[in-house]
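Listing 4. Sequential folding, example run.
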Amino acid sequence: MDHHRKIAMPKPASSIMVIRDGQGGLEVLMIERAKTMRFAPGAFVFPGGKVDRSDMQNWRWQGMTTGRGAMRDFAFRVAALRELYEEAGIFLSDKAPRRTLTAAAPFATMVRNAGVKLDIASLVPFAHWVTPEPMPRRFDTYFYLAPHNGEEAIHDGNEAISFRWVSPRKMLSDWEEDRIPLMFPTRLNLMKLARAATVNEALRHARRARVVRTLPVVDMTKEGVKLTIDPATGFGVTAATPKELSVEAAGLAKKA
């Protein structure tokens, strides 16, 4: 590891955990990433991505979002819903659009033309993860919880090759059995979500819980790379497993 490398500034990003009540209990929408992706190829993740400049331009969204006053995390919330629409085709608004959505238009223009408000007030902060300092590409990611509005998810066939509505507990079981790859933050967010049995319970837990900024620490040991987090984050787990580290390492190797 190059200790003289300049630490990269993390780019703002958002991710959204859309949940619904399924026949077997709580379900969350997850994306299967294409194996050709530079980062975390083949992993299952939640919809999300970088915060765009347009997401940060509050004037652009005047009168087009739900909620009262300016929210500290306004741009992150807008980005979460924009990414959800772009990656999964799910549009969370205060009411049904008055006209067919046109994906070719800029997102803010599409929302305005639809005659609706982007429902940022329905998002509940769930987690906050920052990529470890030694990593060359870093993100400062806010995770949100949102109830599903019933729209069908449609994958883009590019970054996302499939969607799954899954039980968090089943997803964790599949990970344990080496059926699916997960990144460290994804597994811990699933563990936290699995504490609830219904959408209402999950939202209630999230509203009551304090979101702790989680910055994993990377150490080199005789056994190899070790990734740990502060116990105060409240996930109940403090170290990544070799399986999780290999998922991210695959993306780094592909970049190199």
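-- end of first protein; second protein begins --
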Amino acid sequence: MVWLIIVFVLLFVMAPVMWLKPSPRQVRQMALRNGAKQQGVTVKMEPPPLHHFRGTMPAYRWHYPQDAPGPDFVLLRDSNASAALEPYYAGWRWRIAPLRDLPESASAPLKALLERLPQDALVIESTPYALTLWWWESQTAERFSTYLADVKQLKAALSGLSDQPVGKPLDSQNGVHHR
């Protein structure tokens, strides 16, 4: 009977320690996010640009150079898009299409990336500031690293294709733009 009480007390003491231990999924996600951050990717939990979505989702963000902003667009995977949205390529639809058609130098790497992304990648968003991938992190860090070259090529191709012209600084003496 004393042994039973000792075992019960030990289990009672050890239970909180076991709850603090990260799960295998959390360990994989931490390795994935750390690997992405080492490659210059910003990772944040944010609400994605999905209709009727509550909560947050991992957002992997590649920033455009400040002097070469990117175009505005949002692509959704068919599984999370309305049938009313315009189809784009390989099961993806435009929620917000770019104002001008993307040149072949940008559309080819975008299409190649869309073909390779895992099924839990739901949104690709481009703003003047960054290219963002919204996904549920189903892959390992090693597998995710295989996408990095494609994303960097796409980011380079989209840099400078902003819908708005880059403003020139004002001349401090005359108040006129430099040309």
